[in-house]
Amino acid sequence: MAVVNSLGRHILAEFYGCSFEVLNDLEVVKKHMIDAALVAGAEVRESVFHKFSPQGVSGVVVISESHLAIHTWPELGYAAVDVFTCGERVDPWDACRYLSEKFQAEHITASEMRRGIMNAGFSQKAVVNQ
Q1: Which residues contact 9 (CB under 8 A, 6 or more apart)?
Q2: Which end is more exposed in the chain, N or C (fewer Cβ atoms within 10 Å of the end residue's Cβ)?
Q3: What is the pLDDT of residue 117?
Q4: Which superfamily does 7-117 belong to?
């Protein structure tokens, strides 16, 4: 049986029943996203966030290990979050648990996808669709 390795872990998380005030505050969302990266053991490189009118925040935290991204709908108490980490040192689930607490989520759904699955003995070749 071949050993299966992956380049990274990508969690797609949906947070429901969150605090309107938290999800609508750019500085609070930014702080929680950066802190979530740090709690997970990531090295933060930079971040960009935007506040929409009349409500909502979107942003990304670039980490050495990949990224965390968020889009909020405060009026619905909902946030969509991606946590993509490469390597074995950072645990993306730690970031999700942290955000669930900070957003005061009543319910979350999340799934993990392994990215860049590599089988031992598999030689990589470029595939081009024509």
Answers
A1: 84, 85, 92, 112, 113, 114, 115
A2: C
A3: 87
A4: S-adenosylmethionine decarboxylase (3.60.90.10)
107 carries an active-site annotation: no
Strand order in the sheet with 4-16: 44-51, 57-63, 66-73, 78-86, 4-16, 107-119
Predicted TM-score of the model (pTM): 0.87
CA 23 to CA 57: how far, in whole Å?
Answer: 7
Residue with tokens 């005030």: 21
Which member of 19, 58, 64, 71 is catalytic? Answer: 71
Catalytic, 66? Answer yes
Q: Which of 66, 67, 96, 100 is catalytic?
A: 66
| Annotated catalytic residue 86 | yes
Which of the following is catalytic: 10, 18, 67, 86?
86
Q: How far lies 24's CA from each of 15, 98, 101, in Å? A: 14, 18, 16
